[in-house]
UniProtKB/TrEMBL annotation:
A Pfam family the protein falls into: Sigma70_r2
Name under which the protein is recorded: ECF RNA polymerase sigma factor SigF
Domain RNA polymerase sigma factor 70 region 4 type: 124-175
Family: Belongs to the sigma-70 factor family. ECF subfamily.
Residue ranges annotated for the RNA polymerase sigma-70 region domain, each copy included: 34-96
Superkingdom assignment: Bacteria
Gene that this sequence comes from: sigF_3
Keyword terms, alphabetized: DNA-binding, Sigma factor, Transcription, Transcription regulation
InterPro entries reported in the protein's UniProt record: RNA_pol_sigma-70-like, RNA_pol_sigma-70_dom, RNA_pol_sigma70_r2, RNA_pol_sigma70_r4_t2, RNA_pol_sigma_r2, RNA_pol_sigma_r3/r4-like, WH-like_DNA-bd_sf
DNA-binding as UniProt keyword: yes
Length: 185
């Protein structure tokens, strides 16, 4: 079933008031919508489903780390749509895809789609990150959450750029594995 704006907004309000169960439901619902959104956009330009899964995880992490910025007096789905759109643009920029190839202006597609085929339960991203070794956790946080370049992350951590790239890749892969095996709780 497709989650409506009032339902998602109510769940997000409850989660901001400390309701962990409501937060899990919000992330679960959003993960399905995000998965469908990214898969449809990336499929149009011949990109893989694994890229869509990476984007889903990146977006859920961004929502998690920025949830305190959500204004409960405003609609929730446009806030999520903006994050999703920027994550897609950023991904395409970093992978050197032509942004003209992906029509991202159809925000209604996000609300109209729901994907039940992937991993359907969302997990607390802090717990997923906490299961990773410190180097991976820092690399993911700097590059994927804070938006630093690989060079900037390497400079802050004292690691090589190659080590940052490997840590991010392996960390995201470990997180995806934990999600698929249901171990993030």
């Amino acid at each position: 079933m497709i989650a409506s704006e009032p339902e998602l907004r109510g769940l997000m309000r409850a989660s901001l008031d400390g309701d962990a169960a409501a937060y899990r439901v919000v992330l679960d619902r959003l993960s399905r919508h995000l998965r469908a959104y990214y898969r449809s956009r990336l499929a149009r330009i011949g990109r893989s489903q694994s890229e869509a899964e990476d984007l889903v995880q990146d977006t859920l992490m961004a929502i998690h780390t920025r949830r305190h910025t959500y204004d409960v007096g405003q609609p929730f789905t446009p806030w999520v749509q903006a994050i999703a759109r920027y994550k897609l643009i950023d991904h395409l920029r970093h992978t050197r895809a032509s942004m003209a190839d992906v029509p991202i202006e159809d925000a209604s597609d996000f609300a109209a789609q729901d994907d039940h085929t992937g991993a359907e339960s969302a997990h607390d991203l802090d717990r997923l990150l906490a299961k990773l070794p410190e180097k991976m956790r820092r690399a993911i946080r700097y590059v994927k959450l804070d938006g630093l370049s690989v060079a900037e992350a390497a400079s802050r951590t004292g690691m090589s750029e190659s080590a940052i790239k490997v840590s991010v890749h392996r960390g995201l892969k470990a997180m995806a594995s934990a999600i698929s095996q249901g171990r993030a709780r």
